[in-house]
Amino acid sequence: MDELSEQAPGLEFPCRYPVKAMGRHDDALIDRIWSIVTHHAPDTPAEALRTTASRGGRFVSVTVTITAESRAQLDAIYADLRAHEQVLAAL
Q1: CB–CB of 66/82 below 8 Å?
Q2: Which residues of the chain have pLDDT under 70?
Q3: Of the four, 1, 16, 30, 41, which is 20 to 30 A from 71 by CA?
Q4: pTM, whole model, 2 decimals?
Q5: What is the CATH number of the domain that holds 67?
Q6: Which domain holds residue 55?
């Protein structure tokens, strides 16, 4: 995913924004995604975390809905998620 464009329509900050990352199902991965996201959005409550296992249970999708303050914040979150070797995709 390329960095979010400053001119992309539809986002006005601050706003609720679901950050999603996927990888092989592993509790350590879920904890790491939570850590990465809350490093950049520290006021995110635990209730903002949702996980969905794949049909076979080998993969997990982790969604953390944050209050996004800026595109720079979102760019930083996605850069850190993409840099983690266990994250297969970040949306």
Answers
A1: no
A2: 1-9
A3: 30
A4: 0.88
A5: 3.30.70.260
A6: 15-90
